[in-house]
Amino acid sequence: MQETLGILLYAPWIYVVVALSILLDVFVPVLPSGALVVAAATVAAGTAADVAGLPGPGANSHLPQLFLLGVCATTASIAGDLLAYAAALHGGRRFDGAIARSRRLSGAQQRLDSALKRGGGSFVVLARFAPAGRAVVSLGAGVSGRRKREFLPWSALAAVVWTVYSVGIGYLGGQLLGASWISTGLSVVFLLVAGGVALRLLRPVPAPPSLPEPGATPLP
Question: Which of 81, 208, 74 is nearest to 150 (CA)?
Answer without folding.
Answer: 81
